[in-house]
Amino acid sequence: MSIALMVKVWESELPTQTHKLVLLAFADYADEDGLCWPSIGRIALRSQISHRQVQRITSDLKSTGLLVVEDKASGHRTPTYRIRGDKLTPLPESGVTRATGRGDISDNRGDMGDTSRGDVGVTQTISKNHHIEPPEEPLEEILSLKEASLRKNYAESQRRVTR
Fold first, then answer.
1. Which of 70, 101, 106, 108 is the most buried (most CB within 10 A)?
2. What is the pLDDT of residues 21-68, one digit of tens each?
3. Are both 105 and 60 inside the same structural domain?
4. Which pLDDT band holds residue 132 (cuts at 50, 70, 90)?
5. Within this chain, do residues 7 and 81 fall inside the same structural domain, yes or no?
């Protein structure tokens, strides 16, 4: 598995989400040079799309030059593919920031407190007119209520199974 290649795929612009998903599945099997030899069936299982759809997407990726067949299939061997990371187009910059999720926030920095670390506390002001309120219940209490609910549902399902 090539993490560097997977990061390149994540940060690239592809025609559809399905193209990205299939290329990510190939990258998950690839070595540092981009070589991999998974079967179409394995890619279909990994990406949870149909065998035929993987064939179509693979054909598209080959026609754009992002996926190259290095060694054809023979006998019981699958083809050897090479992912061309150098042919990937980077995503355009969206301008979305981590602090607000909306555009550039440089005009409101005076209202946000200390943002030198790049994070914003829960109760800090985001802009002049918006303020994030802290949750009413502490996080530990919310999690314990969720756990109690899950335990209750599990116990009920076990009772139904043993009937």
1. 108
2. 999 999 999 998 889 999 999 999 999 999 999 999 999 999 999 999
3. no
4. low
5. yes
- Residue 19's identity, in one-letter code, is H
| Bridge partners (DSSP) listed for residue 68 | 82
Q: Which amino acid is at 37?
A: W
Query: Number of folded domains in the chain?
Result: 3
Tell me whether strands 80-83 and 35-36 are parallel, antiparallel or unpaired: antiparallel
Alpha carbons 106 and 102: distance in angstroms, whole number:
11
Gap between the Cα atoms of 37 and 138, Å rounded: 49
Give the span between the Cα atoms of 116 and 79, in whole angstroms. 50
Domain boundary among 31, 62, 90: 90
10 and 77 together in one domain = yes
Question: Could you tell me the pTM of the whole model?
Answer: 0.56
Who has greater pLDDT, 154 or 77? 77
Q: Which domain range does residue 64 map to?
A: 3-90
* C-alpha to C-alpha distance for 105 and 141, rounded to whole angstroms: 33
Would you say 46 and 64 are in contact if contact means Cβ atoms under 8 Å apart? no
Distance, CA of 54 to CA of 50 (rounded, Å): 6
User: Is residue 130 a contact partner of residue 124, using CB atoms and an 8 Å limit?
Assistant: no
